Amino acid sequence: MTSPHYLTRRGAVALGVGLAALAARPAFAEDLEERGYALGDVVLGQADAPVTIVEYLSLTCPHCAHFHEESYPEIKAKYIDTGKAKMIVREIYFDQFGLWSSMTARCGGEMGYYRLIDSFLSRQQTWYLDHVRAFNETKNPQPIIGEMKKIGRLAGLSNERMDACLGDQDFLERLVKDFQTTSGEDEVRSTPTFFVNGERVEGAISAEAMAAEIDKHL
Q1: For burial by CB atoms within 10 Å, which of 177, 195, 198, 202 has the most?
Q2: In this structure, how many other beta carbons lie within 10 angstroms of the beta carbon of residue 88?
Q3: Residue limits of the Thioredoxin domain (predicted)?
């Protein structure tokens, strides 16, 4: 499990200002809700499913990627696709790349959100881990940002749309506020952390172990 050393709101805002400087600030709709982003909780599965799985994850957390590669496909097929459970992902931000990748995943609205979450987790090695050591030495974020945008383009996002999202300070502040509120209320101490109908389950557990937790509520 990855233990939290969270990005503070002040730190996140500073990162957003720096990222916005990479491109001209676009014109936005006055209301954040009208800008086409996926805001708040996005439900995967049937809204009336009897079991709700909430997962706190970071897109730069290797343990989170492991769960989504090894356990999640079976859980999705057995419970989410059959209407027995629905899932809600809530992102945690340890660093700027976790925040920026989350902004990219939410950039195109709810329809493409889970596709991008899956892509960032399944390709975490190539877009993030292969480059983070070099970033720690050079402090140049562009190689990782470039890899992030490759994933976004595969999901149909244009470079212009991604630049607009990543340069939107209102959007950034909303995501940071949401993550601080929900993770604080749920006292999230590590990632991944799950709540199955409100019961805490910690760690990148096996599909069998997660199935046992879900079956308690069916």
Answers
A1: 195
A2: 17
A3: 13-218
Count the neighbouring beta carbons within 10 Å of the beta carbon of residue 98. 24
* Interatomic CA distance for residues 87 and 152, integer angstroms: 22
CA 164 vs CA 8, 111, 161: distances in Å: 23, 18, 5
Residue 46's CB is within 10 A of a number of other CB atoms, namely 14
Tens digits of residue pLDDT in 125-181: 999 999 999 999 999 999 999 999 999 999 999 999 999 999 998 999 999 999 999
Report the predicted TM-score, pTM, of the whole model to 2 decimal places: 0.88
Position 118 in a domain: yes
Tell me how many domains the chain contains: 1
Specify whether the backbone of 195 is left (phi greater than 0), alpha (psi in -120 to 50) or beta. Answer: beta
Q: How far is Cα 146 from Cα 47, in angstroms, rounded to an integer?
A: 35
> What is the domain range of residue 100?
9-22+30-215
Summarised one tens digit per residue, pLDDT across range 42-70 is: 999 999 999 999 999 999 999 999 999 99
Q: How far apart are CA 192 and CA 57, in angstroms?
A: 5
- CATH number of the domain to which 112 belongs: 3.40.30.10
User: Taking CA 135 as the corner, what is the angle to CA 99 and CA 173, rounded to the nearest 5 degrees?
Assistant: 20
Whether 4 is in a domain gets the answer no
Spatial separation of the C-alpha atoms in residues 123 and 129, rounded to whole Å: 9
